[in-house]
Amino acid sequence: MSSSFALRDLQRDLENKANDLGKHQKEIAKNHQLRKKYTIQLGENELVLKELDLLEEDANVYKLIGPVLVKQDLAEANANVRKRIEYISAELKRLDRFIQGLEGEQNSKREAMMKIQQRLQSIQAGKAKA
Question: Strand, helix or coil at 60?
Fold first, then answer.
């Protein structure tokens, strides 16, 4: 009788861990999407910086603010883009560390699930022999 309780408890534990793993995988996917967005923004800003570097010092630079183009100083535009690149790069590094941690936790959760599955199989094999 006790083996059926243990079996039921293990099955419930396995189900809970599977649900937890599913949530974890969604969190990882969400953060990968965010990382992709930042990577695209970084590429766009690096391209803008290259374009700004090609301009003469007296060139007119305009920034789109809502529906209006506003004239901006070249040095100010350059500084703004560099700050944006710095910020995005820092966010990418932070996200990479976060994702790496999540993936480590995911591997631990998978290992725990495998151990529970092995225990379940050994209990079921013992019942089959009996």
Answer: coil
Burial of 31 (0-12, 13-18, 19+ CB in 10 A): middle
Got the DSSP string for 11-55?
Answer: HHHHHHHHHHHHHHHHHHHHHHHHHHHHHHHHHHHHHHHHHHHHS
Only one residue has tokens 């100083």, namely 73
CA–CA dist 47, 92 (Å, integer): 18
Give residues with Cβ within 8 angstroms of 62, minimum separation 6. 69, 70, 71, 72
Distance CA(34)–CA(91), nearest Å, equals 10
Instruction: Please tell me the pTM assigned to this model.
Output: 0.77
What is the average pLDDT across 59-71?
93
The single-letter DSSP state of residue 61 is E
pLDDT of residue 1: 46
